[in-house]
Amino acid sequence: xxxxxxxxxxxxxxxxxxxxxxxxxxxxxxxxxxxxxxxxxxxxxxxxxxxxxxxxxxxxxxxxxxxxxxxxxxxxxxxxxxxxxxxxxxxxxxxxxxxxxxxxxxxxxxxxxxxxxxxxxxxxxxxxxxxxxxxxxxxxxxxxxxxxxxxxxxxxxxxxxxxxxxxxxxxxxxxxxxxxxxxxxxxxxxxxxxxxxxxxxxxxxxxxxxxxxxxxxxxxxxxxxxxxxxxxxxxxxxxxxxxxxxxxxxxxxxxxxxxxxxxxxxxxxxxxxxxxxxxxxxx
Length: 283
Known about the structure:
The protein has helices at about 20-45, 50-60, 60-95, 100-105, 110, 115-125, 130-135, 145-170, 175-185, 190-215, 220-225, 235-245, 250-280. It is an all-alpha fold. Helix 3 (about 60-95) packs across helix 12 (about 235-245). It is globular and about 65 Å long. It starts with 19 loop residues before the first helix and ends with a helix.
């Protein structure tokens, strides 16, 4: 029998997977329809305001307070997720125990659960009469309708981002480096912070950025537990909804544009740091 020879050309020749033109067209169409056009509409709608009106809307006392509440809550939630998300990923990758698959599946729950359901559940649990909130109320700590409750809600929706970005890196991390460090006399703490953590840091930073960005724009799971107290627990997305209910679409898009730019700058900084770290590690 004659042996068939399949020729696979390089990048300049024919692609191994056919249909590049069609798939690229579908990709660009989906990207434009679902991402670029909606984002462009925000800029177009906000442009209906002149510069003075735009500045007046986005720098009003109530809106600035909403930015502070959303950004500070998202930052602290992302920080908590960075710490405990790393621990969760470590446990799921390095240890075998009964119920491991169930726990691993529960990590995805914030993605699948409607945010409004999560918000109502968290408010019920952490209110002064709830199972958890009542325990803290006895010692004078109020959770629901405070910034603490906002952080808790943002932790809930952001934890999967950190766990899922760290897990693949941990799975591929060669344990020989840890064993070599311990054989040279390094302790567990030193080995983790000087051998393991530098390898995990780019993924941890990516998860932190994603959780931070998600928290900034989170509405459904936060609005119930926040209590919406003016200048104290009002989040920026709630102010956008309030402007929309008043038919002030240009004002709403102006506030949304600021949040969009903040999230974009955040992801740009995270990606830049990751690229710099990769070049530094290779060099």
